TrEMBL record:
The keyword Glycosyltransferase applies. Keywords: Glycosyltransferase, Transferase. Residues 185-339 form the Glycosyl transferase family domain. One of its GO terms (molecular function) is glycosyltransferase activity. Residues 15-168 form the Glycosyltransferase subfamily 4-like N-terminal domain. This is Glycosyltransferase. The keyword Cell membrane does not apply.
Amino acid sequence: MSSVMFACMDADTLGGTQRVTHTVAQGLAERGHDVHVVGLHRAESPFRYVDRPGYRHHVIHRTPVGRLSRLGARRERRRLAELFRELGAGFAVLASPGVVTRLAPLLPERLLPIGQYHGSYEHARGSWHLGSVRSHYGGLEKAVFLSEDDARLFSEHALLPNTWAIPNPLPAWPSRTAELTGHRMLGVGRLEGVKRFDRLISAFAEAGRTAGEDWELHLIGEGDELERLRSHARACGVADRVVFRGGVPAAEMGREYLRGSLLGLASEHEGLPLVLGEAASYGVPSVAFDVSGGVRSLILHQETGLLAPPADVPALAAALAGLMASVEERRRLGTAARAHVESFRPERVMDRWEALFEQVSR
């Protein structure tokens, strides 16, 4: 089996990129690969993703992400060279544009570079990411994106000849599904500005006025926006029906999905938001803003869930109200959603990674 190194700027912060990195690393390690997860910097608040990892974990700098001094850059090169000597022939999966620019020039020939991008094309084109991907990913063995839609857009607009699509894997596949009879909507994610839970609260309040005011919105996550969101819920008149749950351990999230009947996502941008896939695996349908190819790969509009135009809160509210009012429609979409995300089951995503490695090795 091959050596596989996954490198992130910071591999241990609570976040989507880190979670996927550890999930894939563990899956490939269980298949016999020699897997290493590398964080270039220490996380300020490290989060443990895998209780018994089958891979090795390395942190290059003891300091959080920030500008490197010349001494720090020399120390980084020395420590990476020591690490590379431990690895046999295989692959270096570089998780972001910043990691690509720092590590790709340092890799030995026996480690074939694969660039990953965990965001959407829509997000990249609004930031420096698109220029960096265009400049640096084309010279790698493969450039991996989260959906076929994103891979096509990067191929066309970033002029990449080497695109590939691999979705993020679900952490597990549940044996039970939700009944969808309760009146509990879920919102899951970090309480940060980009997630726009304020818009979800506004849409929930508006939907409740037409679909019934006995529904609750349970927000699961922690973050700096907590007090502002509490104030916003009071301003919308739903402070008694918006429940801030705080962080819930990953091992207990299955119980939350089983108790939910609907999930809402109001982010400004997303790559491939796994909360949509996790909810679907429990038969829970979702309503989300149509902000990326990754979202569209998880929600087929009116088939497995509902999409609203980005930032259109009235449209989001109308979509939520329709599902809040009909358990039959929730069950129709939820059943189709679970069938649709079968392709995101962990073993199927690991198959796609190994198929990529095989093609790169030819």
